[in-house]
Amino acid sequence: MIILGLILFVIGLLASISILQTIGIIILVIGIILAILGALGKSVGGRRHYF
């Protein structure tokens, strides 16, 4: 999710499409939160790792 968020954000910046930038940032933040929770040992949605 982190990589997908970065890709969408960069494409949005290069193409000047604000909706892609917004979606990219949202997916990036969700990916980072899930990665942090997984690293802390908290299982989210029945999964311990999201990678």
Class by SSE composition: mainly alpha
Unreliable stretches covering 5 or more consecutive residues: none
User: What is the averaged pLDDT score?
Assistant: 85
The secondary-structure element order is HH
Number of helical elements: 2
How many domains is the backbone divided into?
1
User: How much helix is in the residues?
Assistant: over 70%
Description:
With 51 residues, the protein is an all-alpha fold. The termini are close together. The radius of gyration is 13 Å and the shape is elongated. The longest helix is centred in the middle third of the chain and has 22 residues. The model has no long low-confidence stretch (mean pLDDT 85). Helices cover 71% and strands 0% of the residues. It is built from two helices and no strands. α1 runs antiparallel to α2. It has one domain.
How do the helices and strands line up, and which of them pair or pack?
Layout: H1 2-15, H2 18-39
Helix pairs in contact: 1-2
